């Protein structure tokens, strides 16, 4: 069993004033006011943490970076290792969002250690979850699959729906990326259900995106687009800038798989602009890959495409995105296998690389 979703990153008085579905402009306004009125170092740390998270979700990278560092300094002044752990969790999550994955791992590893020593179970769980997600994004499935399962069981044990949705979606994503589409769809749909019942709008939006992705791979284009429109509405209501950009990138993927290359090009161009405004390298690179593939299908000079793919391969290698790098390699091989004019559109899921199997959820 599980209760309604809650947001432990909003602490102190902010914890009672804000909820998991508060818009991030509202969070930023209230947290900024709380920070201005803070009377102790711990209060300043808690308010700065909420400021950091609001700015991160709104795509304001520089402001988020300043805020989590201030939160950490204030927590250190207060001698509160739990609050220090939350600040490092925020910083590690921001680093992952910005594509600096080695830094994300370092910050989150320190957060785990501080949380463990402080006895703050939620900070410990969120920091472990951040490490697991970072490894998953890098494609290091063998290292993090078991951790995802453990975190899911912890979420069930303590009735934390938001954490259950996160872990289940991560497991589903690994199944999807290794070709286990039926299992991925089952888990994503369960995530949608749990998020809806727990009133976790953000978790529901991300889970809907996962369902749409799998349906698209299986050829159900219109259903996928409908679900993405539903998720987009949630993103706009909650000011989820990063999630909205990833929603648009996924819409580009859906159009591309359906052979609607002009629509794909337009949508990837939109997501690329959004990611650039947020200074989010991972999203930028993924959108550029989609755009390069769409332009290739629309008759772009093959040598220009190959040059861009070479640049993207270097970018993905630098960021540490193994799955995305393998997609670049697979598309280049497909593109050069025959003359460009004769290259057919890829089959759904054809460029998805295979990794070791992920253990099924018990």
UniProtKB/TrEMBL annotation:
Highest taxon above the source species: Bacteria
Region (Disordered): 336-362
Record keywords: TPR repeat
Per-repeat ranges for TPR: 165-198
UniProt KW Cell division keyword: no
Record carries keyword Oxidoreductase: no
Compositional bias of kind Low complexity: 337-347
UniProt protein name: MalT-like TPR region domain-containing protein
Originating organism: Streptomyces tubercidicus
């Amino acid at each position: 069993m599980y209760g309604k979703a809650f947001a432990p990153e909003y602490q102190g008085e902010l914890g009672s004033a804000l909820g998991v579905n508060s818009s991030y402009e509202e969070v930023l306004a209230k947290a900024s006011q709380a920070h201005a009125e803070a009377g102790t170092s711990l209060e300043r740390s808690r308010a700065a943490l909420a400021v950091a998270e609001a700015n991160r979700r709104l795509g304001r990278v520089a402001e988020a970076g300043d805020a989590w560092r201030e939160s950490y300094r204030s927590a250190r002044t207060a001698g509160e290792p739990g609050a220090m752990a939350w600040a490092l969790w925020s910083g590690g999550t921001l680093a992952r969002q910005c594509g600096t994955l080695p830094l994300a791992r370092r910050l989150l590893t320190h957060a785990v250690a501080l949380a463990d020593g402080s006895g703050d179970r939620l900070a410990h769980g969120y920091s472990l979850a951040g490490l697991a997600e970072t490894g998953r994004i890098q494609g290091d499935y063998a290292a993090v699959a078991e951790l995802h399962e453990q975190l899911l069981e912890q979420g069930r044990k303590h009735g934390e729906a938001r954490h259950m949705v996160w872990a289940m979606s991560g497991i589903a994503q690994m199944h999807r990326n290794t070709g286990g589409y039926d299992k991925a769809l089952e888990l994503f749909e369960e995530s949608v259900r749990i998020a809806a019942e727990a009133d976790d709008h953000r978790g529901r939006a991300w889970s809907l995106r996962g369902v749409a992705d799998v349906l698209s791979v299986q050829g159900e284009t219109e259903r996928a687009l409908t679900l993405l429109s539903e998720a987009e509405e949630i993103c706009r209501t909650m000011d989820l800038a990063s999630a909205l950009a990833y929603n648009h990138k996924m819409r580009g993927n859906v159009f591309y798989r359906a052979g609607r290359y002009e629509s794909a090009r337009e949508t990837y161009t939109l997501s690329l602009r959004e990611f650039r405004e947020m200074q989010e390298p991972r999203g930028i690179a993924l959108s550029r890959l989609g755009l390069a593939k769409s332009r290739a299908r629309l008759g772009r000079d093959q040598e220009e495409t190959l040059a861009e793919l070479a640049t993207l391969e270097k970018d993905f290698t630098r960021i540490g995105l193994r799955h995305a790098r393998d997609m670049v390699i697979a598309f280049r091989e497909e593109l050069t296998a025959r003359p460009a004019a004769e290259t057919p559109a890829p089959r759904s899921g054809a460029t998805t690389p295979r990794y070791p199997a992920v253990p099924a959820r018990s």
